[in-house]
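User: My instructor asked us to take a sequence, write out its structure as tokens, and then describe one feature of it. I'm not sure where to start. Here is the sequence I was given:
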Amino acid sequence: CSVCFCIRDSRLSRCFTFSRDGTLFSWCNGHSVSVVKCSDGSVVSTFDLPKTTLLEFSPLNNVLVTWQPYTKSQDSPQGDANLQLWDLQSSQLIKALFQKKVDSWCPSWSEDEKICVRSVNNELHFFENNDFNTIANKLHMQKVSDFELSPGGQPSKVAVYVPGSKGAPSFVRLYQYPVLGGPSAALANKSFFKADRVTMQWNKKASAVLVTASTEVDKTGASYYGEQTLHYLAVNGETALVQLPKNGPIYDVAWSPNSAEFCVVYGFMPAKATIYNLKCDPVFDFGTGPRNAAYYSPQGHILVLAGFGNLRGQMEVWDVKKYKQVSKPEAPDATHFSWCPDGEHVVTATCSPRLRVSNGYKIWHYTGSVLHKWDVAAGSELWEVRWQLFPERSFPERAVKYQAVPSELGSTQAQTTQAYRPPALRHLPATPSSKLHEDEPPQNLRPGVSGERSLSKSALKNQKKREAKKAAKQSQWCFCVFQKLKAIEELKEQQASGKVLQKNQLEKIQKEGQLLQELQELKIRQ
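Assistant: Let's start with the prediction itself. The structure tokens for your sequence are:
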């Protein structure tokens, strides 16, 4: 999962990015912006844009977007357009726009590039087929503060957030392009108080959105993180408040790539992590632990719960189909984590400016083995690490391994540590009552047999009938096999006593091994 050639630019790079399909690579070195092919390093385009600090490709690689900080000067008191859209085939400028804030700096495209949208003065401007000279549609409400375009192609949907004012609640609404006006235009609507800002996340199938609403200050004084609530909106109109059983911050929310489940990391430390279904019912609780982030593999078969930042860098790797822990490696001082598109490897890195010492990165196998390690030279800094991207479905899901893969660098499994005890209790024997908190173990919250999906009463009743019928059939078959084996045993006793057996009786004895194997297999299935 790396570029097929090596780029070495001795000048300090301000930024870099891969195209979504991984075929192109672009960077700015403080003198110019370059675009090259990942297959052989050949130059596609070069732009004289020394101040560029952000880069992005459109989904089909038709447009390169560049952004530099907005500035004013005596020669240009109004400032210059600082957001440029470039045609990658001709290297010509398509449109120059003003984008003063770095937040939501890049226009959002649908995957087929038929729709593009950007926020301008609290309203949304929609463009079609990369024609940026004509605004094809607008969504104007009272101060649209944020938006999120749905993934995938048509029909495109958009989630919009309008903050509350003068006692009115904040709200998020879902629309399907191009129906943006009128009282019944919204696909779903969710209102809530206590929201200074929100984070909106579509699932991969664009059927639902999770909204994390946050306040800057917790007025109860319980947390310096402020207050957070999690809301669910579906394009079929269903909405819900996701109930989190432990008080405290919401650290992370992650959709599974299957679009049917999501994981939430929340609560005062040690934090809980729980998987919910589309009914917002808890499916599996991972218990408590030192964690503040969740990362699904691109294929969705593995989930990593991690504790970075002010935590020790512990990672819990889980097989989410069996809900079984695979490994528990540790990456101290890590400031970055990301999955390789192959779903087999991850990278952790310590980067500036978050940490300016011990910069470097490690490539791991998810079983906990460190496969490669690189540290920057003394006096240098590492600012960013990215995997080369690949088209979707380039890497099929593989069976989950539990044994650490071989590595010369070994593994760094997290060591079991004793629970924190206040100084006043450290001279006393450790007892359950002297713990600062009680650790909660993982538990499957699905009804019925472990690992089953939640079923309706009628479906569960029918399932039990089918299972009972199947069990009865297997029991009957076991009895038949047992009777045959008993008959063979009697024939063997007769043969041992000197009786001459007939041909068909001898054939029955020869089938003893086959029948024993059948009986063993039936017992395993029961």
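For the description part of your assignment, you could build on this observation: DSSP finds three helices and 33 strands in the chain. Try explaining in your own words what that tells you about the chain.
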